[in-house]
Structures are given as C-alpha cells and as structure tokens.
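thought: fold this chain, then report.
action: predict
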Amino acid sequence: MPSASCDTLLDDIEDIVSQGDLKPQDRHSARKHVVPKARKRNTQKYLQEENSPPSDSTIPGIQKIWMRTWGCSHNNSDGEYMAGQLAAYGYEITENASEADLWLLNSCTVKNPAEDHFRNSIKKAQEENKKIVLAGCVPQAQPRQDYFKGLSIIGVQQIDRVVEVVEETIKGHSVRLLGQKKANGKRLGGARLDLPKIRKNPLIEIISVNTGCLNACTYCKTKHARGNLASYPIDELVERAKQSFQEGVCEIWLTSEDTGAYGRDIGTNLPALLWKLVEVIPEGAMLRLGMTNPPYILEHLEEMAKILNHPRVYAFLHIPVQSASDTVLMEMKREYCVADFKRVVDFLKEKVPGITLATDIICGFPGETDQDFQETVKLVEDYKFPSLFINQFYPRPGTPAAKMVQVPAQVKKQRTKDLSRVFHSYNPYDHKIGERQQVLVTEESFDSKFYVAHNRFYEQVLVPKNPTFMGKMIEVDIYESGKHFMKGQPVSDAKVYTPSISKPLAKGEVSGLTEGFRNRPRSHLSSARHPSAAVRRDSASSRLVLHLQKLHQDCALRVSVGLALFALLLAFLVKVYN
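observation:
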C-alpha cells in the first residue's frame, strides 16, 4: 500500500487507496465469475452416524432387562407391575439373562435360602458386568447391607417409579427410593392398581388387597419391609378385577401378608370386599382367596362360609398354624391358641363341605421341645391337611427370634424330615377317583405333558393338552390320583364354558396400557422424556426422535449462548459511552 508523507493533508480516508487497487464495484462484478463448489460427503457414513449414537453415549429406554422374582404371590404381583411399566416405556423384557443389559432382582426375606439365592444373583450380575436394580423385601428391610453398596434400590411401595430408577441406573447412577406412599398423612396400600403390568400367566390376575399386617411375629422379617396394615379401597379393587376380566383373565388371586386383616384400617372388612367382587365375576371364572391368620377370620366365620360356598369362589383357604403348641405360639406372638385354629378349621369343614384347608408349620422354633413338636405331629395326623407347607426355622437378622436360644441344627432337620414323613403317609385324593368334576384350565404342567386345571376346591387336576381347553371350564372324569394331583379325562359331550368376555392377552403383552399412562410426565429424577407411542419402540423411529431432540437442544443452546454474548456486548458498549 502506498504511503503518504506526514505533511500531506488527506481530504478523505479513501485517498489512501492507490489507482492500481481494485475498486468495490470491480470486486462485486468479479463475483459473477465465481462458481460455487458443492462439498461432497459420504452419504452412507452420514446415515450410519445418524442412526447410531456415539459409542460413549447411553440412551435409556432401548435396553434389554431380565427380571427374577422370589417369594410370595404379592411379590410376584409387584414384579408383574414393574415389568409392565418398563415394557410400556420401550424396554425389552427378556427371558435370557446373559443378553440383558440390566438385571432387576425382586427379593424375598422370609427365609435364609431365598436371600442366599438373591445375594448369589447379585454377585453373578456383577461378575458379568451387568447394571443392577434391587427390589423386594430384602433391601427394603435392610438397605444398608454391605453387598448393596453402589447398587440402585427401589422400595416395595415405590414400584410405580421403576422406570426412573432403571433409567438412572442405565446412565451409571445409583438411586434409592425407599419411602412410603401417603395421602393426607395416612399410609396407602402402595402403588396404583391401574398401572401397566405383564402377567406371568395371561389367564391369572394377582391383586394385592393390602400391604403389611397387624401382627408382630417374633420370627418375621417381612414386617420390617411391608410395615403395618394399609388397605386399598374396595372400589379400586373391584375396578382392577373388572379390567382384568376385560383382558381375558379367568382366575383372580387375592393376596397380601394377611388377607383376613383387610379393611381394618379403612373401616371395612374382607367379607364386604368379597361380596362386591363376586358381583363382577363372569360365569366360568373363579376367585381364589389368599392367606389369612386365625385371629382375623374368627369374627367373620359365618360370612366367610357363605362366600366360600359361592359357585365362583374356590372353596379353598390358607390358614397358617405354625405350631400346635400354645407355648411355642406364645413365643412366636401369634395372638391365637391352638383351640382358635381348630375352631376355624372345624367350622369351615362343617359349613363348606369338601373345602381345602392349607396350613404352614415351622419346625425347630427356639424353645420348641420334643413334646411341643409331637403336639404338632398329632395335629397333622388328625386333620390330614391336603396342602401343608413345612419349613425349617431360620433365624432372620434383626428379629427377636434370632436372639433366642436356638434349637440345634440337626434337631431342626430331623423334625422337618419326621413331619414330612407323616405328611406323605396319606393320599388325600384316592377317594375321588370316579368322580365327575368341573375344572378350570389355566396353565401347563412343569413337565409339559399335561395342562393344569383346578376343581371347585382348588385341587390340582391334570388334563390332556388340548389347546381348546386353555382358559376354559370343562367337565372331566377322575381316573387317577397322586399325592398332590388327580388326572381327569374330559367328558366328550359336556358343555365348555368360556369365562371371559375378551380374548386373553398374549404372553408378554402389557396389560392396562392407557394413553394417560403413556403421556404421564416423569418426576424430577428424569431430566428428559423419551417418547414411546407403542409398547415396543421401532428402533429407527426412536433414533429419529432422539436425533430431532438433539437438534432442538443444540439450537436452543446456540440461541442461549448468542443472547448471552449479545447482552455482554451491550453492557460493554453502555459502559464505554457513559
């Protein structure tokens, strides 16, 4: 650029430009000869990048989850609800543990062996580098166990938030939700009953009528997890039953830690609930009652007998006695004596002919003498219970019974064997050979050779594997019996009842998936929602939605940064000119 002497006066700054320099109009005209060149890009590589997130990114909602549940039917119901919610949000529930990205382990705290299996499963998941979420009664009762360190936990009353816990775990965070459900300061029965679920058996609906109990048994660890009694309102339970029948269910199980105590916390009772439920049971469908302790059924014996005689209610009841020694029952704090138990059993056997009564017995409770045990043996010999659950006593940590003087291990084992021998000394179904019975077919036998049905008394009847029988009530002639079953031959000209008003859901299909649930906002744990209009997301659609979300987020970020810089610049200029 030419220079000008210091003493030369310039009239305008443009005078500095020499005659040889391009004028602005020359530059403008030169642009007409510029040919834009398109930038080439690898279309295949671009599409691949669009469809595949970066290798270090984690997108919740597209992983495979394997679930394992131990324990009672209440725990199984919780597991079905958790599986349903996860599937509804796009996760794939798999039966192959090795291919799963995350293991959801739903535990039982009743006995030591169940917790041992649970602990071993955690160890195996860690060895296989799986993400882990713990659920059920074990972590709820003792969340500070050493082998829970660094793992996510969801409490028994927080199962409606399982999606949040799983998402955070997938992202690498450890989350613990162990609180209680409350409304107006009062504890609720738990999560909503209308949540999506995947039934283990599409023909059977398990409904938890309440959680917790009113007892304080010295051996029970479940109380530490489930707490005091909290019942669901009758109208909610009836609505759940009606929805189940509309989805092809033909058998309902009522469950809880103590069904007989239902309603005492909300001003109602079990018979009131049952009379409402039988009104909505379609012809050919059945209702099965869960376990009830003797104290809470004594005052309702007359009503319970009427209900158990109803044609759509199984004449079956599970009443645990635990011991036939009043001394042992007192140490257990069972709040009844053997005479109370016998009164319940004798009354029901008289008023409900043929009723099946199941019971539980604990062998080797602390302080149990040989005489105490012999009283229990005599009870079994006298009543010949067709269904008997014999358990060796295991001291559970944190329970009063764990601090008592223990019966030697070899004595406990021997008593368990002796009582089992007595139980197997009689066959409860031999006298039924030749009977014609109506049975409801609901599942396949473990050996896959038969279909499993139950008669009016909830006794197991094996029938031929005819696909047209599944979910139907048929008539059979009993021709053989065993210790735990009978075998029946279908009557050719008998009427077949199809109980439900709808076709059953397919195995693994999500129940109760309403639009309101799909559109429900997440709570504060999840910072972003991943849309899911179908139970199983189409992977390409999911990636497209996520890509658009990312573009939207990037655009919003750039606008925010630009506005911030503009504000800083404006503030700087104001300061300079002032």
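thought: worth noting. Confidence is low (pLDDT under 50) at residues 1-17, 521-551.
final: tokens above.
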